[in-house]
Amino acid sequence: MLAKKTTWEIGDPQTAFTLPAKFFYDPEIFDEEKRNVFFKSWHCVCHESDVPEAGSFITENIFEQSVIVVRGRDNEVRAFHNVCQHRGNRLITERRGKVNVVFRCGYHSWSYGLDGALRAAPRSECLQGFDKGGHGLKSVRMEIFAGFVFINFDNNAQSVAEMCPGAEAEIRRFIPDLDNMRLIEEVDVSVNANWKVIQENSIEAYHFDLSGPVHKHLTSLIDYKSYTLKEYGNWWTYMAPPKAGVTAAYGKAINGASYQTDWFFNIGLFPNTTFYCFPFTDMLGTFIMIPTGPETSLLRFGYYGPNGQIPELTKAGIHWMNTELGPEDIALNLTTQKGLHSFGYDQGRYLVDAERSNQSEHLVHHFHKLYYQALRP
User: Fold this and answer.
1) How far apart are the C-alpha atoms of 351 and 210, rounded to whole Å?
2) Which residues are in the Rieske domain (predicted)?
3) Burial zone of 361 (CB within 10 Å; 0-12 exposed, 13-18 middle, 19+ buried)
4) What are the sequence ranges of the domains in the chain?
5) How far apart are CA 61 and CA 63, in angstroms?
6) Any idea which architecture 46-152 has in CATH?
7) Which of 35, 147, 161, 329 is the most exposed place for a label (fewest CB within 10 A)?
């Protein structure tokens, strides 16, 4: 059961109050999130190209659960629980790598093929009625969506495509080289803030010209007044066309640069996956908000370029994100998380206007609604 005084009235976004502060730090609510939100949601693990050949693997940890995604010798990509079927030892500790033949448990050397089948179990010939066929790795539901590998622990969940109809077409409209993307860089950042605080910050532009200097630089690259934030059920977009006459970005000249799109493009999938592209960069970024505790998160930034190429302007954009924009947002995340504990605060008001303008917080309300409905099904 949820702790007392932790209900929320969804209400009309123009008159509603925000989620009560406890939703951002209460351990009991966090346990509910694990069970009802994250163990029943789709999680983006990697691009399909991150497991390019037989034996290539990547692991994903969702709380105490760990999953291996691996490409088999038949070229199929599969997902398995990252645990030996003998005594429960975790098989793989690395984020990514390659095995030549089998996954071998470092405890008692039980070994599993790339298809999950048990290949060897030392001294198992001593056991009566032991059948290797019944001791293979346990599968995890997996789907490839828009070229990315997603996993879900809930076998009854809608597919990603069913959950987000039209989302892949929208991504491909802005990212023409989606199928040719290769990883340029992956950056993990630990943040002492609840994952929802971080999500909220990313899906409103109210603060863009009101907070720090890096956000003001971002607004100098885009037609800020044309910034649109749209909800489509379990997915949403927020984007803006480039500002006319821009000649430089991220300290580099735009003239002669190649790019996927000159728009600032973002698409979010509930609960915590975002695909994006900065203006004038030849890349696709992934932004995953991974909760690690009631008030801690791991932010995973993936940067992908067509065939792994990195033009100078794109390289500058990635550096700008890692060293300027990201830290400026994280500083806001940290002060917000601290403020949510104040005796002087419980709920606020969404800044939502009837026009759903560029500075409206209607996507924050929409996200809160999806979250609350998942938390309290």
Assistant:
1) 14
2) 42-151
3) buried
4) 21-41+167-375, 46-152
5) 6
6) 3-layer Sandwich (2.102)
7) 35
Q: pLDDT tens, 103-124? A: 999 999 999 999 999 999 999 9
Q: What's the CA gap between 302 and 285, in Å, rounded?
A: 6
Q: Amino acid identity of 262? A: D
* Helix (H/G/I), strand (E/B), else coil: 200: helix
Q: How many CB atoms lie within 10 A of CB 292?
A: 13
CA distances from 41 to 17, 180, 301 (A): 26, 27, 20
Indicate the helix (H) or strand (E) that contains 375: helix 362-375
Cα–Cα dist 109/323, whole Å: 43
Could you give the dihedral angle defined by the CA atoms of residues 157, 269, 233 and 347, in that order, rounded to the nearest 10 degrees? 110
Q: Domain 21-41+167-375 sits in which CATH superfamily?
A: Naphthalene 1,2-dioxygenase Alpha Subunit; Chain A, domain 1 (3.90.380.10)
